[in-house]
Amino acid sequence: MSKSRLRVSAAALAAALSIGLSSVASAADTIKVGILHSLSGTMAISETTLKDTMLMLIDEQNKKGGLLGKKLEPVVVDPASNWPLFAEKARELLEKDKVAAVFGCWTSVSRKSVLPVFEELDGLLFYPVQYEGEESSKNVFYTGAAPNQQAIPAVDYLMNDLGVERWVLAGTDYVYPRTTNKILEAYLKAKGVKDADIMINYTPFGHSDWQSIVSDIKKFGATGKKTAVVSTINGDANVPFYKELGNQGISSEDIPVVAFSVGEEELSGIDTKPLVGHLAAWNYFMSVDTPENEAFIDTWHDFIKDDNRVTNDPMEAHYIGFNLWVKAVEKAGSTDPDKVAEAIIGLETPNLTGGKAVMLKNHHITKPVLIGEIQDDGQFAVVWETEKEVPGDAWSDYLPGSKDIVADWTPPISCGNYNTVTKKCSGQNY
Amino acid sequence: MPVRCLSRTGLRARLIAALLLIALMPGAFADPGDFQQGAALIAENRFANLEDGVALVAASGDPKARQLLLALQGSDLYLRKSDRTLVIAAKGADGYDLTDPLTGESAGTAASKRELKRIRINNRLRSQLSAAIAGLDLSHQDPAVRLSGVNEMLANLDDDGLKLLRERIQVETDTEVREAMTTAIALGDLDSADPEVRLQSLDVLQGNLHPAVRGAIRRLIETDADPEVLKSAQRVQDSIEFKLELYSLAETLFFGLSLGSVLVLAAIGLAITFGVMGVINMAHGELIMLGAYTTYLVQQLMPGHIGLALLLAIPAAFMVSGAVGILIERGVIRFLYGRPLETLLATFGISLILQQLVRTLISPQNVPVANPDWMSGSWQINSVLSLTMNRMVIIAFCLIVFSALYLVMRKTALGLQVRAVSQNRAMARAMGVRSARVDALTFGLGSGIAGVAGVALSQLTNVGPNLGQTYIIDSFMVVVFGGVGNLWGTLVAGMSLGVVNKILEPWAGAVLAKILVLVFIILFIQKRPRGLFPQKGRAAEG
């Protein structure tokens, strides 16, 4: 590097520093909250809504007088569905904007990408989407469902209430479906399901030619035993999948499909006639009739100025996460990440579907599990729910590698990956 | 059942007994009062009561029962919020026309769905409803309805259904329905204790491919003790298995051709712009996307005419994408002829701009494009082989587009000029061809065809800003494999890649099949760099 260029970059550094300092100065009268959701690219479909949800929640909190006497100030960045850019933007939020907490990410790969940044800079991330588990970071709070809060109860429902004996595990080819299906396969085998009665299938992102797969499912289901599809197919690949099911004449009565990634948002704007009766497992449905949910939907419609917009499960997760964070900051009397992380454990806040969400020692929360059937208006009718909230389990009990592992972020363990047999913390935080 | 002995006692006792029976066993026997009572239970709109209500209505024997159950099954049954009565709603001129299911008479109108509350049903109810409706169908006046009723019952046959079938077959007049009933009864008779009856049933079921029949025969082979029956069952099963394999092969071929026709549609515009003109157009996918969005917009303009809108979208998409194509050619590409790398980068930039334009102007989310009725469902050839309508329409559409394009290139003055310019630009100009105009029109033609492909794709996949990206690689693959500059090559390459992909898919999985096809093409290009149908003559050397 030549001298002159060195000088230029030094000047740039100084400029960056001074910008950083000035933002610290202005931060004195507001508390900054980072919002890390893709506003462009493939994930924009799902994540834009979450950005708006956060803006609404912050807006509502400010109407109530802010937090610790200060106004909250949202800082929105766009990681553009680009996984490495997630890490850069996270760094920008923590180093440059000095945000008190970040709410964001959707796909597991984006979360894995920002994780080292949050651990290095000691930030707080609230992650609102159902995921595959096998992780618990000191700096991340998982407000979406772990596998035992979505996948396992859904399989139980199919097995016990619908008498399903043959299983198709269909998913998109990436980490969440692969891990979830591994857990489900182990679980089904533990319940005595034979190898021949399980069919596993993976497809690429955005797969659109479902003819062969649907025809295979049809053949697999034609043996006389009750068959169901457990779908971890992600994103918009679901639309041609369900269309093909409808066209090939597979109805929800013959072979029901229970999906973990299809919610109100995904159904809005598509013709749901061929989907009626298929199932989804979530911790929240827009159709649930509670005063809290009604108020939330009204606020959302007022904020977004469109009465046709739907609410969905990750939105509720952000609602819970944000409320827990607000309570923790109030309890700690500070936005310091370490103090907030300590204060937040054990705090509780109402769910939108009734009951309470409690932040557990493993940084997961308690959630009710609901199974809904798709109706032709794009909403779900709840057909089954757990009696009480299910505590989120970071490390699956059904995988040989993680059976003995627990996460506990309170002393004396203070570890995200603690082996209860060897009494050792692996040292890695996730 | 103690009904007969009760009938010897007094009238009042009989009445009480009958009422008790109705209360304890909904649907035990027909009574017009059941219909009212069942409807009242349904009107309570709770899953638990709905089941009893449906059972009562189904068994009531009331002529209006079928209509009520069909409405419930089709989610057309509502509670009117104002007076909490049941109504059947159908979309009318303004709002909804309501019918009272109890009397069958009109019950006024509702301006919007907000005045109504839908009676929701779940899967258990749906199965119950199909079974109940199938039972009622058996006495319907239309033989087609009776036939579908029998087929519905075949799928989950129980003792009650079998009893009903034995009754109805005595009075059935239609031969086809009688045959179906005979099959269903034979299926039930497989459980008979008499080996002779089982043998006869097997004879009836010979060659039947219905899943229920296959399941029953498989069970029979596993459990039956009679050697004679076993032998016969094994023979029946073998013949079924052979047929199944044959049909499965036909199905794979159909899937392959349908995937192939999508590939050909996506690639054929590129075969013009890249194949004939030599322009590497990375924005080709976005031109397809624009065609798909045009379909969406045309549908938005004509709500209620989905099919007509789709047909109108074909010329509209051709114009839109063609116009954008000409704009790209005149604005950018014409300055870059002979500089393929820069063309590639510039058109890649254009593709990003077009994507972002759609995101900003319309929505970053996918938009819904409706399928007309004649593109939904499938043509059921028999119980294992059915060809989906949308795929058949697309295959036909692909062939029509291909023929039209082929005729344009071979039989029109424009086609002649295009070929002349692509073979030897200088000579063509010397002969008086305005090569700049031909370039623009050719690019417009290729782009317009991409737009038409977009109309077809909008019926199969999601219409969103990223639609084009999914197809750009596949399109180049097909054109290169088929041989640059050859329309026939594109057709053969697209179709064969589709079929190969579908043959590989069942045993390799969708991901690996795609990889294998790519590897195959790379190896093929090593051996024959000019593709399946290389261009011959002087142009090929240049």
Automatic annotation (TrEMBL), chain A:
Gene3D superfamilies: 3.40.50.2300. It comes from the Bacteria. Transmembrane segments: none annotated. InterPro entries: ABC_urea-bd_UrtA, Peripla_BP_I. Keywords: Signal. Residues 1-27 form the signal peptide. CDD domains: PBP1_FmdD-like. PANTHER family: ALIPHATIC AMIDASE EXPRESSION-REGULATING PROTEIN, PTHR47628. This is Urea ABC transporter, urea binding protein. The lineage of its organism: Bacteria, Pseudomonadati, Pseudomonadota, Gammaproteobacteria, Chromatiales.
TrEMBL record, chain B:
Its main location: membrane. GO terms for molecular function: transmembrane transporter activity. It holds the Pfam family BPD_transp_2. GO terms for biological process: amino acid transport. The keyword Cell membrane applies. It is found in: Cell inner membrane. It is a multi-pass membrane protein. The chain crosses the membrane at residues 253-280, 287-302, 308-328, 340-358, 392-409, 476-500, 506-525. One of its GO terms (cellular component) is plasma membrane. The keyword Transmembrane helix applies. InterPro entries: ABC_transp_permease, ABC_UrtB_bac, BCAA_transport_permease. Residues 1-30 form the signal peptide. CDD domains: TM_PBP1_LivH_like. Keywords: Amino-acid transport, Cell membrane, Membrane, Signal, Transmembrane, Transmembrane helix, Transport. Belongs to the binding-protein-dependent transport system permease family. LivHM subfamily. This is Urea ABC transporter, permease protein UrtB. It comes from Thiorhodococcus drewsii AZ1.
